[in-house]
Amino acid sequence: MSAWGNRTEITYAALEYMDLWDGYDHREAYWNWRKLKRDHSRLYPKRFEIVLWENDRPIGAAIGRTTYSGAKTRLDVVEGIPKDMGDRSNIVETILGTFEIYSILIGATEVRVKHPVNPKVRESMPGTSIVIVRQAATW
Description:
Elements: E1 7-8, H1 12-18, H2 33-43, E2 48-54, E3 57-66, E4 72-80, H3 92-105, E5 110-113, H4 119-124, E6 130-133
Parallel strand pairs: 4-5
Antiparallel strand pairs: 1-2, 2-3, 3-4, 5-6
C-alpha cells in the first residue's frame, strides 16, 4: 500500500461516504456522484473512474470517458473531500497521472480535462478547458 492508501473504482462504500460531502458548504462544486456513476456506467463502457482513499476514507474522486471516436479521452469531474472534513493530500496530480496512464493503455492520442473549477488546477495548466496533447503510445 502506498502513502496514498488505496485507489479503487467508485464503489458503493465510497458513495456512502461521499454522500456526507453534501452536508458541507465549502465545496467548490456540488456533484451528484451517484448520478454520475449511474449515467457513466450506462453510457460509457470504457469510462475511467477512480476514488483515492487515505486513512480509510475517500479523499477524492474522478470520472471520465473516451470521446465517441475513442481517439481522445476527457476527464469530466474531479472532486476532493471538502476542507471542513479534515486535511488531505493533494489529489490532482495523482488523478491526472492515473488518467493519462489509462489514456495511453486504450490508445488515446489526446487527454482533455473539461472545465476545471479549482483555481490551482487552472493555474497549473493553460486555459479554462485543459487539453494535454501527446503522441499515442507505441508498445
